[in-house]
Design goal:
There is one protein chain. The chain has 219 residues and is an alpha/beta fold. The protein has a single domain, classed as Alpha-Beta Barrel (TIM Barrel). Helix content is 38%, strand content 20%. An 8-stranded parallel barrel has the order 1-2-3-4-5-6-7-8, surrounded by 6 helices. α4 packs parallel to α5. The longest helix has 14 residues.
């Protein structure tokens, strides 16, 4: 199971030296990309040269151009919405293959539906994972659903590898580990912690020792 740490605010860049040897993947979140552009990817690569970088582009159109920019800047992964056109999926897939990069098919627009993807869904070979998560606005509005965690098993049955995100922290991590997503995405449980490096280390250790308890008061 890979650990992906999501950064969404400018001050999160300061955490990169602390997590560079802990995270398998550093996510340059959509808000950072909108604020700083492609330069945010280059910055993450400079601060964490040995860590893979994911750009959470949530691409919906202009697939070839966006993929060329993102992968050209050094990202190893980017996200594309599941609800966008087949033509966009194929355009991104071609560029990803040229760069030897990978794509996450993001089901955020399907959140809350019984079936996250159509039964006959198929994607280019470079589309390596299905992103399953509870949207942050829904969580901030009080939605504490665990449907996204429960959906992992269905994605596995259908043959997809899963990148799971959405409110994952000390209260939910045991349930997450039980369904075994291929990528575990953590945001505020680390970036919002008073001890971000220690929190990241705890989560990393939790992957190999599920019995470890959370060492700080839950918030």
């Amino acid at each position: 199971m890979l650990l992906q740490i999501a950064l969404d605010k400018p001050e999160h860049f300061a955490l990169l030296p602390q997590i560079r040897n802990i995270a398998d993947i550093v996510e340059v979140g959509t808000p950072l990309l909108k604020r700083f552009g492609i330069g945010a990817i280059a910055t993450a690569r400079e601060l964490c040269p040995d860590t893979l970088v994911l750009a959470d582009t949530k691409t919906v159109d202009g697939g070839q151009l966006e993929a060329e920019m993102v992968f050209g800047a050094g990202a190893a992964f980017m996200t594309v919405l599941s609800s966008t056109s087949k033509a966009t999926h194929e355009a991104v897939g071609r560029v990803a293959a040229e760069f030897g990069a990978s794509v996450i098919i993001d089901t955020i627009t399907e959140s809350g539906k019984k079936d996250l993807l159509p039964a006959n869904a198929s994607f280019p070979a470079s589309f390596a994972y299905v992103g399953v998560h509870l949207p942050s606005d829904a969580r901030n509005a009080g939605d504490r659903s665990t449907a996204h965690i429960e959906a992992v098993a269905d994605m596995h049955r259908r043959g997809f590898r899963v990148a799971l995100a959405g409110g994952i922290g000390p209260d939910t991590i045991d349930a997450v580990l039980a369904v075994e997503p291929e990528i575990l995405i953590i945001g505020s449980a680390i970036t919002g912690s008073e001890h971000p490096q220690e929190a990241a280390k705890w989560i990393r250790a939790k992957l190999s020792n599920p019995g470890r308890g959370w060492p700080w008061d839950k918030k």
